[in-house]
Amino acid sequence: MPIVVNLDVMMARRKIGLTELSQRVGITLANLSILKNNKARAIRFSTLDAICRELKCQPGDILQYVEDPNDIWED
């Protein structure tokens, strides 16, 4: 899939764990884990909004478009 979720990178930068973010955002730990591990097929804008609000970041800090999945880059 050409969209890569870099949630784990942003969480590490903000020093927040999966359980804490799950509680703050109001999403189940299982669903947040699916998103974090790049297994999600979709994300609601309301969920993305809540995650960005808690991590104080932009959607582009979490979502990345790559034409070739082997060409993933990070800041």
Automatic annotation (TrEMBL):
Domain of life: Bacteria
Molecular-function GO terms, alphabetical: DNA binding
InterPro entries: Cro/C1-type_HTH, Lambda_DNA-bd_dom_sf
Sequence ranges assigned to domain HTH cro/C1-type in this UniProt record: 6-68
Pfam families cross-referenced by the UniProt entry: HTH_26
Name of the protein described by the UniProt record: Transcriptional regulator
Organism of derivation: Solibaculum mannosilyticum
